[in-house]
Amino acid sequence: MANKPIVDFEAIKNNLSNVSKPIQILNENAEVVDQEIFDSFSDDDLVEFMKKMVWERALHEQTMNFSRQGRMGFYAPTEGEEASEMGTVLAMKTNDYLLPAYRDVPQLIQHGATVTEAYLWSRGHVVGNKFKARSLMPQIIIGAAYAEAAGVGLGIKKSGEEDTIAFTYTGDGGTSQGDSYEGMNFAGAFQAPVLFIVQNNGFAISTPRAKQTAAPTLAQKAVAAGIPSVQVDGMDILACYAVAKAARDYMVAGNGPVMIETLTYRYGAHSSAGDDPKRYRTKAEEQPWFDKDPLIRMRKVLEDKGLWSEEKEDQLVDEYKASFKEAIKEADAVPAEKVSDMLKRTFEIPTPEMKKEIAKFEAKESK
Amino acid sequence: MAKKTYIQAITDALDIVLEDDPKTLIFGEDVGKNGGVFRTTQGLQDKYGEERVFDTPLAESGILGLATGLGLTGWRPIPEIQFMGFSFEAMDQIAGQEARMRFRFDGVKTSPVTIRTPYGGGTHTAEMHADNLENFFTGVPGLRVVMPSNPYDAKGLLISSVENNDPVLFMENLKLYRSMKDDIPDGKYTVPLDKANVVREGNDITIVAYGAEVNEAIKVADKLAEKNVSVEVIDLRTVSPIDNETIFKSIEKTHKVVIVQEAQKMAGVGAQVASAIAEEAVLSLDAPIGRVAAPNSVYPFALGEDIWIPRADEIEEKVNEILNY
Q1: Which residue of A has its CA nearest to B50?
Q2: What ipTM does the predicted assembly reach?
Q3: Which residue range(s) make up the domain with A26?
Q4: A166 and A225 housed in the same domain
Q5: Predicted structure pTM score
Q6: Ordered domains of chain B (ranges, CATH)
């Protein structure tokens, strides 16, 4: 045998990342790094992007308040992820399908559910899921939405429905699930129009991104399934929107799936149920991300153009929060569920035993 | 009317639902050109095209996730899990997603999926190919579980399953695939998804069985008839739901019951039937409930099946024991 190894595995390992560097339009200092794309946005567009992020942050703050008051069920905080969530979802059209995960409630509302419905979903009330939007309710099983999205994409393709794709979200932890790979692989094999969005917010509850995988990027996980993928600065709403829009345009032209990894950060806890980020990360680690805040960045751009002011933002926040208070009042007014109704919606045609059980509960409930 | 095997009856049903409803889709591992590893989907891709009958990548959760998504976009999916042992891979999509769809959305969104899968011992397969796994699925609210015991029922139950707007797990017995032939009417007919079938009428004792064990129970009934013992045999046909009324009516007449299953005894369909009788009809009985089931070991594949699966002789022994109580 020759001394030279037949393969230099170490060289291959050091050259694994085949994804180009994250796409940005505005950098951390709010400087335009892609003038041509930046100029394609009107002043109104820029204001609209900012308003959406202000809305999402206000929704988060108000919902956390409701949660502390014991008025919510499960809630997954979204602070820090406004650019990633609003930027991508703004590229959706009404006829597109959304398969959100549990931290994607703002996108679900953006796609047509009401805030009242979102609050009812959080409380486990069925009325919260009866939205007309082409969306599933937020998926709790991590990765499951990716597997289902492949079917939605194939369904769209088989129906010949034009100008329609599926959007689905998971997180950095979600990319470790087998379902994420199966979903992407199926969508690739069938060339189904699905936009897979990985919101890499750094943590799966407490487990950091570095412990999820040895892969240099999460975006490259799509490459093995034959799917083009990119990393995007997830704190830059203009980049998130522009890339999602470009991906959508590419797919509606008859092409197969795309994957986007947005690099973002979860400022708060995994859920409102009480886990404490101080147990697994330091202030010093958090600060650089807080400095990249998507709202700070857009605020500076808009203020420089004379399109924004603190008063305007405060006024908007007040308006939004007032609407959320109205929404939770509406949720409070929805009658409580009945066990007989739960039984009735288990099967379309109740089984003989279930008919007896329904009758038993109806008798109890009518007392 | 023609003599057809269990497999041919299933192919017949699939042909009819593909013809009847342009939204039906058949997919899974090797179901296209190859016609399935048992030839159950043979000829269907040629007849209906690759758009309607197609092969998928090899991943059960992916196949069932595909079914969930296709169902949401207005299609009526009929996925195949090549062997039931592989269904563990798809447990979340079946139990965690499809079965919950109607409950979650109150019918605004549904999951009209019929999952076909072969199971059942006696053909000496590899491991994880023949296990009777119905016990896992009968505990899933929102899912129907269908287990035909003969070609006639297989066709009628499969058509009913596909037409049902809720998810159905349709279990096809491997041992029966080619070992049985029935007169099968041409064209469409249905068998209800919530009604047991009295396959032998009798007065002295009731045997409740399903799947391949129904045929074992019939053998016992025929043999005991020669000794002037009159055995009633009930074929459950569906194990979720279980048609308790037909069982209760029968034991009111016979006062004795033996419940037979090919699956392990623990926490299964037989236990559910025994519990329903104990709760609601125990006073009809004048002897203890008899049970015949497989041992509570791990399923022994291949030749190990021969000493493990309960068949007619074991049923006969238990029937005699209960008769002579």
Answers
A1: A158
A2: 0.96
A3: 9-335
A4: yes
A5: 0.97
A6: 2-184 (3.40.50.970), 197-324 (3.40.50.920)
